[in-house]
Amino acid sequence: MTENSSGRTKKIIAIAVAVLAIIIAAALIIPRIYAANESSDVAAPSLSSSTSATATTDAATDINGAWTISTGSYAGYRVNEVLNGADVTVVGRTETVTGDAAVDNGTLNSGSITVDLASVTTDSDRRDNYFRTQAIDTTANPNAVFTITEPASLEGLGSDPIDVTVQGDLTINGVTQPASATLQVAVVNGEINAAGSIPITWSDFGVEAPNLGFVAVEDAGTLEFLVVLAK
């Protein structure tokens, strides 16, 4: 081999190595950039983020009586998926939430939350359409409903949030399963605010998490809500 041909071979090898390094770097970096752009930055509901700086609290509010879910309430879901090789967190939200609660002697005796699933939206119309027509047939089963089945103490409820665990039945896709909701509850502007979440496994409700090759959704997710209850 001549000196010139040897030099050309070394250059070709160097170029090939450089191209391979670029491809490997792109394979590692691009999914992370994609995930950063696509992953939702919507925070989970909490009372610290839900009340405005001008809101006033009222520890003297009588919490006993009948309460109805009012404006300012919302609900939805949070789920992790792998989209085009990138880990993405998806959050769906709707403000179409109804329900009520009954408190007697400082105890939450009954209540329910109904969420209109057909109105839940994410940042993708395509994803939302799949959720409404294939994951869950929202025409046949339009609502998710959580109904309290056991009394829960609200002892100490006032302007400072307290942690409350509520047992109930959760109905999704026409299937009802026992569920446990973890809540932060406080009295704000004479209303009861409750921010909470319910861990769920989609397959328990007959919902098959999609795995379409370019996207795979985890079977475990979280239902989230913030409800404002008024008398």
From TrEMBL:
Ranges in coiled-coil conformation: none
UniProt entry tagged with the keyword Transport: no
Membrane spanning residue stretches: 12-34
Positions of the Lipid/polyisoprenoid-binding YceI-like domain: 66-230
InterPro entries recorded: Lipid/polyisoprenoid-bd_YceI, TTHA0802/YceI-like_sf
Keyword entries, A-Z: Membrane, Transmembrane, Transmembrane helix
Family listed: Belongs to the UPF0312 family.
PANTHER family: PROTEIN YCEI
Name under which the protein is recorded: Lipid/polyisoprenoid-binding YceI-like domain-containing protein
